[in-house]
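Dear V.,

Thank you for sending over the compound details. I've combined the ligand you provided, flavin-adenine dinucleotide, with the protein sequence from our construct and run the structure prediction for the complex. I'm sharing the raw inputs here so there's no ambiguity about protonation or stereochemistry in the SMILES, which I know was a concern on your side last time.
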Amino acid sequence: MTNIAPASQADVVIIGGGIMGCAIAYNLARRGVQAVLLEKGKMVGEQSSRAWGFVRQQNRDPAELPLMIVGNRIWRELSAELQADVEWRAGGILSMAGNEAELAHYEAREKLEREHGVDSRMVTPEEIRGLMPGFAGQVLGGLHTASDGNAEPLKASSAFAAGAERAGAKLHPYCTVEGFTTRDGKIASVITDKGEIRTETVVCAAGAHSSKLARMVGLDLPVRTVRATVAATEPLPEITQLAVRGVEVSFRQRASGSVYMAQSVDNSADYDLTLESFHHLRWFLPNYLENRRMVRLHIGKPFWDDLMRAMPWSKARRHPFAHAVDLEPKPNQKQVQRSREALMGYFPHLKDVRIERTWAGMIDTMPDMIPVLGPAPELEGFIFATGFSGHGFAMGPIVGRLISELILNGGASLDIHGLRFSRFAEGKLGAAGKVR
Ligand SMILES: Cc1cc2nc3c(=O)[nH]c(=O)nc-3n(C[C@H](O)[C@H](O)[C@H](O)COP(=O)(O)OP(=O)(O)OC[C@H]3O[C@@H](n4cnc5c(N)ncnc54)[C@H](O)[C@@H]3O)c2cc1C
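Below is the predicted structure of the protein with flavin-adenine dinucleotide bound, written out as structure tokens.
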């Protein structure tokens, strides 16, 4: 990793040092491509170090499921491949149903996933208690996928960054992309706060900031960012190796004994209104209405700060990401307390659970809750790997592979047509997904 200015020319410039950017850089560099990765803050400082760590094939959109089936195989060998312990645990994933509608949803998922060869199966409340001794919650049943697992986000994302460097990629933390030049409908260069880089290929893997970057080259990418809160407990006696989407609280336990948990019910995500909120309403309204119980709207400092940045005299016009370096979103402590109580309700023998750490992350959410992968046809050389809508940590390894194939071979080895950028212009969006 280097703080010196990036080279003035590169085969591929990757924007964003999260798991996507790092996995793409790793895969490209291994195949001899001169890849330069630019990150506006510290490496893996945003979503990719803040996730829960669920790695699931379960409950995937049909456009994502085949990718995650291959992705699951990569995860199993990832520590060996990257020469670093990513804390992979093949403990399975369990999603619990608290009402008949959720039960029916999971039954439909079981059918779809089994058709794809995934080992998902419905389990009864008794079987859930068998899978998780000591569990005392009230549920109607659930969906269990034994081949799924979990891993540690900071370790896995950092392992990709280290692997990329070892393979010869140049990683530049604290180097912000502030613009682009284009020529004859093609990307020509990337402008950073440390100089200009000539290139014919750019990958936008900038998470919650991708929409703003896309707008700089005239591309309209509809993204909303929601704030999600997580808490980590003190080390506890082993409760489970499963990653669990519970009715009230979702959780997984690390090998150290610490439990990562977050609320799964009403108001489990915070939405801070900004000027961006008024764009693309027609796409986001159905999604919001479907999930409105889950999201709590806030109008406050983020809105007024954003308004000030839009004023003609604001420095943000020249340095539009300066305010977003090393962002530290505020965790919602009410949610933390509710999660803690719900966890203790699920496992009464735990008695008193102490919270050791809380944090929040800004999730990039698309109207149809699936990412954008692949080129923007309007601008040759501009490729998206973004919009992972709260479930992209698991997809990092396969996305790294597919985007490198796209760049090197002109096509990916798996079908990513359903994730194309042009679906917005075509008006062919999947049904707004309910967040489960
Ligand atoms: C609380 C929480 C829980 C989650 N749980 C899970 C889970 O259990 N399982 C799962 O699969 N997924 C989960 N996710 C989602 C997952 O973390 C993301 O989908 C994934 O990390 C996205 O990776 P990324 O590389 O696209 O984005 P990020 O990790 O956000 O990286 C994007 C990077 O781009 C950089 N950047 C932006 N603009 C610029 C610029 N102009 N110049 C230079 N750099 C720039 C940013 O600084 C950032 O570091 C969770 C997310 C959160 C927040």
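A first observation: The domain at 12-426 is CATH 3.50.50.60 (FAD/NAD(P)-binding domain).

Warm regards,
I. M.
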